[in-house]
Amino acid sequence: MTAVSPIVLLLLLVAVVVAVLMVLLARGRIGDGTELPRRRPGRRRTNRSRNLR
C-alpha cells in the first residue's frame, strides 16, 4: 500500500459520515429537521387548461 491509500480511505470515510449526518439532520432525527411551509386550506387554483386554445 502506498501512503496515499490510507488518506483516500480516510477522506471517503469522513465524506460518508458527513453525508449520513446531513441526512439525519434533514429528516429531523437530529435537531428540528426541515418542514414544508404550511398551506392555508381555503386557497385553490382554478384549472385553466380548458381555456387554452
Notes on the protein architecture:
- With 53 residues, this protein is mostly helical.
- Helices cover 45% and strands 0% of the residues.
- It is built from one helix and no strands.
- The termini are far apart.
- Keywords: Membrane, Transmembrane, Transmembrane helix.
Taken in chain order, the helices and strands follow as H
Q: State mean pLDDT (0 to 100 scale).
A: 76
Oligomer: single chain
Please state roughly what percent of the residues sit in beta strands, choosing from under 5%, 5-15%, 15-25%, 25-35%, 35-45% or over 45%: under 5%
Helix content: 40-55%
Number of strands: 0
Write down the overall geometry. elongated
Low-pLDDT segments, ≥5 res: none
The number of distinct helices, counting runs of at least 4 residues, comes to 1
Rg, rounded, reads 23 Å
Distance between the ends: 69 Å
- Structure class: mainly alpha
- Mind describing the biggest β-sheet? none
Question: What's a concise summary of this model?
Answer:
With 53 residues, this protein is mainly α. 45% of the residues lie in helices and 0% in strands.
